[in-house]
From TrEMBL:
It comes from Mesorhizobium retamae. The keyword Nucleotidyltransferase applies. This is Glucose-1-phosphate thymidylyltransferase. Catalyzes the formation of dTDP-glucose, from dTTP and glucose 1-phosphate, as well as its pyrophosphorolysis. One of its GO terms (molecular function) is glucose-1-phosphate thymidylyltransferase activity. Gene3D superfamilies: Spore Coat Polysaccharide Biosynthesis Protein SpsA, Chain A. Its EC number is 2.7.7.24. Its cofactor is Mg(2+). Belongs to the glucose-1-phosphate thymidylyltransferase family. The keyword Translocase does not apply. Residues 15-249 form the Nucleotidyl transferase domain.
Length: 308
């Protein structure tokens, strides 16, 4: 575990949205009984990973959007957010109408404020990730995060010029103009719900996020953060990727002795909860290796504090 407290993030007025809907059809039969975002990625539910990214973004208030069937399960798991020093809200997406639909569903919750939307099956990891997120917070308009992929025809692709400015967006192109995929993390300003109202459904019957982002691109207000070598972006939406993500997290935690994307640890290190509250959360889970890892952090932090 980390021995030193990291620099605290600055809490932002930007609100968070986690889109955790859909049918999870690529994971059948696993998703017949539960949401894919509730499935384990090694020692934590998948939903913990995007939540951790939002904590690192400085977000303190989050809206979770899911299906009528799955939403109660998320509420039982996550509660109102107070145990992590946060505020959680919940909303229903009764049909999979696309990513951009999240901004229409969340219009009243956002109330004109800027937001950061993350897909519930996306995992981000890398040294300096918090700094990348902090830099995105300083931009106006909208910001996307791009990661290099071998098979760009399977993804939404961003075309960049020599200065890494965004000059085009394409959805699963047959002849990709780059290998930079648009990941499932989007920083937008308060106009996003209005832009979502203006776009039309695609041939898939969905409100495509690239269509919404094109509104910003047309106004030259779309920035990009490049996730270069050393950053991991995992989309745990298939059997193979779910397994790979678990192996990735297990390998890092076993080798380095660090927790990957722990909301409890991140809430403590970023000043949302106290060391005593972290100890309580660790004690509640002490029968598991995850709880043991949290308690190790508590012991290390108390020892470090006693030496100051």
């Amino acid at each position: 575990m980390l021995n030193k407290r990291t620099d605290k993030i600055k809490i932002t007025r930007r609100k968070g949205i986690v889109l955790a809907g859909g049918k999870g059809s690529r994971l059948l039969p696993l998703t017949l009984g539960t949401s894919k975002q509730l499935m384990p990625i090694f020692d934590k539910p998948l939903i913990y990973y995007p939540l951790s990214t939002l904590i690192m973004s400085g977000v303190q208030e989050v809206l979770f959007i899911s299906t009528p069937h799955d939403l109660p399960s998320f509420q039982r798991l996550l509660g109102d957010g107070s145990k992590w020093g946060m505020m959680f809200n919940y909303a229903i997406q009764d049909q999979p109408r696309g990513i951009a639909d999240a901004f229409r569903i969340g219009r009243d919750y956002l109330d004109g404020e800027p937001s950061v939307l993350i897909l519930g099956d996306n995992i981000f990891f890398g040294h300096g990730m918090q700094a990348v997120l902090s830099h995105a917070e300083t931009r106006s308009g909208a910001t996307i995060f791009a990661s290099l992929v071998r098979d760009p025809h399977r993804f939404g692709i961003v075309e960049l010029n020599a200065n890494y400015d965004v000059i085009g967006l394409e959805e699963k192109p047959a002849a990709p103009k780059s290998h930079w995929a648009v990941t499932g993390l989007y920083f937008v300003d308060g106009r996003a719900p209005d832009f979502a109202d203006e776009i039309e459904c695609s041939s898939r019957g969905e409100l495509e996020i690239l269509s919404l982002l094109n509104h910003y691109l047309q106004r030259q207000q779309l920035g990009v953060e490049i996730l270069h070598r050393g950053y991991a972006w995992l989309d745990a939406g298939t059997h193979e990727s779910l397994h790979q993500a678990s192996d990735f997290v297990k390998t890092l935690q076993d080798r380095q002795g660090l927790l990957v994307c722990s909301p409890e640890e991140l809430a403590y290190r970023n000043g949302l909860i106290s060391i005593d509250r972290l100890a309580e959360l660790a004690d509640e889970q002490k029968q598991s290796t995850y709880g043991e890892a949290l308690m190790t952090i508590v012991r290390q932090e108390r020892d470090d504090l006693s030496k100051r």
